[in-house]
Predict the structure.
Amino acid sequence: MYSSMLSSANTMGHVQNRLDGISHNLANSDRTGYKRRETTFSDMLFQQVNNQPVPQNGAGRLTPEGLRVGTGAAAAQTALRLDQGSLKETNRELDFALTDKDVFFQVESAANGEEEIQYTRDGSFYLSENDEAEDGWTLVNNQGDYVVNAAGERMDVPAGARDFTLLEDGTVEAVLENGENVEVGQIELAEVTKPQLLEAAEGNNFQFPDLAELDLGLADVVEFVPGEENVVVQGALEQSNVDIAQAMTDMIHSQRHYSFNARAISQGDQMMGLVNSVRG
C-alpha cells in the first residue's frame, strides 16, 4: 500500500513538469519562430515479484508471470522540437522567414552582462540608432540584439537608406536618398548539428551551454551557411510550431493522469486508516 502511494506521489511531480511545459508552449503559440518542447517519460526503479512459484498452477495464464512493483514514472527528457512552422506573409522589407528547420539567425546579445552570440528563428528585424556613428542605424531584432553578418560584425545601415532587398546570395541591399545602391551586409545562418544542446536564452533566443565542459568546440555543434534566397524568404515570418489542438489534448490527458494519481494516494490513505482502525 505504501509503495503504491509512493509511486503515485513520484509520478505526480513529473506530470506537473509536463503540464508546466505544455502551458509554456501554449503561452508562446503566437510568438514568431517559437519552437515547442515536449516531455517524455520513463519508468523509475521497479522490482519483479514472483507471485507464482509453482509453474503448473499458471497454466492458461495470458499475462506475463510475476508482478512489477514500481516507484512511478519520471521525466526522461524535455526535447526541443524544430519542426518547421507555417509562413505568414507580412510584405515588410525587414521581415525574414527561414524555410530550413535546422538553421538560425545569429544575433549579438548582451542580456547576460557580456556580448555573446545567440541564435533565433525570429526574423522580424528593425533599425536602431547607431550609438557609434553620428548618422546611421544598426539592424537589430525585436529584443534589441544586433544582427550579425557573415564577417561576424553588426549590420550597420547608412542614414536615409530605404527599399531593402534580399539578394540571391543572402546579401541585404538598400537604396540611399541619392538613388545609389548600398550593401548592408550578407546574412549568415548557423546550421545547428546538435540542436538538443540548445538552451532557452533571453526572450526568443537560444544559446549553447559551456561547450568546454562537454569537451566540444563550436565547430562540433554549428556549421555556418549563407542566407541564400532558397533558405530565407523576405517579407514573411515563420509562426510557432505549436499545434494548439494537440497541446490542449495533451494537457487534458496530463491533468487526468495527475488526478488519477492523486486519487490513488487518497484511496490508499483511506485504506491504511481502515486497517489501523481494525487493529485498534
